[in-house]
Every structure is written in structure tokens, then in C-alpha cells.
Amino acid sequence: MKTLTTILPILIAAKKISLREVPGLITNSYIFGAVCGIIFLLIAILISNSIKYQGGTNPTDPKKRRVWFWIIGIISPVVFYMYNFILVIPNITKGPALDKFMLHGALSAVLTLVVYIIFGFILSKVLKRGKIGNWFPSKK
After folding, report:
1. Do 72 and 44 contact (CB within 8 A), yes or no?
2. What's the CA gap between 102 and 115, in Å, rounded?
3. Strands (DSSP E) found in the chain
4. If DSSP codes are grouped into helix, strand and coil, which group holds residue 136?
5. How does 41-69 read in b/e, with b if 16+ C-beta sit within 10 Å?
6. 3 state SS for 58-69
7. Rg for the chain (alpha carbons), in Å?
8. How crowded is residue 104: how many other Cβ atoms within 10 Å of its Cβ?
């Protein structure tokens, strides 16, 4: 199997990826999709921590954190799919190699969203007293 260190130079050199190299590219796409989900989650954590607490009887800061979490959640698979569509897919030879990768390119973008939501939910429940706990509030 090809690793990321062997696929990246191929992409940079604009050499067309053949049918034999597609399984390694699919694996790398899924791994990179999961990593991108975690990176977008870190961005959501930074934004949530930058929103200040509001005092009073009806603060709006929990809603702002929740809205930003979901905005970034919507953006994450779109950005990853655009990465695949703009940088990866043009470097795959037409025909069976491209057909084999197309489904997995879209599924790896969905994986980005799934990783983002699952780890976001876990962090929200573990850190329920902090700012991140507002992403998935508990019903009392």
C-alpha cells in the first residue's frame, strides 16, 4: 500500500494516479478526512473558548457557541470535498481509476463530519461545565 509520503509527491508532480495506486489513495483519503474532522473540531474549540460568558438571567453565549459548532460542522465536509475535487481528482487517470475513487472521495468527506460530531459530542459531555458543554446541552 502507498502511504501519504509516497502519494503526496505524486500529487505535487502532477503525475496521473493509475488504477493500481487508487486503493492507497482511498485509504489516505479516509485517514486525511478523519484528521480534517479533528482539525475542524480544534477550530470549533478555539472559537467556543473565545466567546465570553454573559451574565444575567438570559445569556446568549451558549446559543452562540452552539451555532458556531454547527456552522463549522457544515463547513468541514464541504471544504474536504472541495480539496478532493480540486486537488486529488484531477490527478487520477480517467476511466476505472476515477470511477473507483469517486464514491470514496465523497464518503471521506462524510467521515469528516461524522468524526467532527462524534468527538464534539464526547467533548461536550466530558466538559459539560465548561464552554464546550454548550454544544450538546443536557436537559434538566
Report:
1. yes
2. 20
3. none
4. coil
5. beebbebbeebeeeeeeeeeebebbbebb
6. CCCHHHHHHHHH
7. 19
8. 19
- Count other Cβ atoms within 10 Å, centred on residue 72: 19
Instruction: Rounding to the nearest 10 degrees, give the CA dihedral for residues 78, 75, 110, 24.
Output: 60
Q: Which of 71, 69, 55, 75 is nearest to 132 (CA)?
A: 69
pLDDT digits over 48-65, tens only? Answer: 999 888 877 778 888 999
Closest to 124 in 3D by CA, of 51, 58, 48 = 48
Residue 18 sits at φ, ψ, to 5 deg, of: -90, 175
CA angle 66, 70, 71 (to 5 degrees): 115
Q: What is the pLDDT of residues 16-57, one digit of tens each?
A: 777 788 888 899 999 999 999 999 999 999 999 998 888 777
Q: Which amino acid is at 125?
A: K
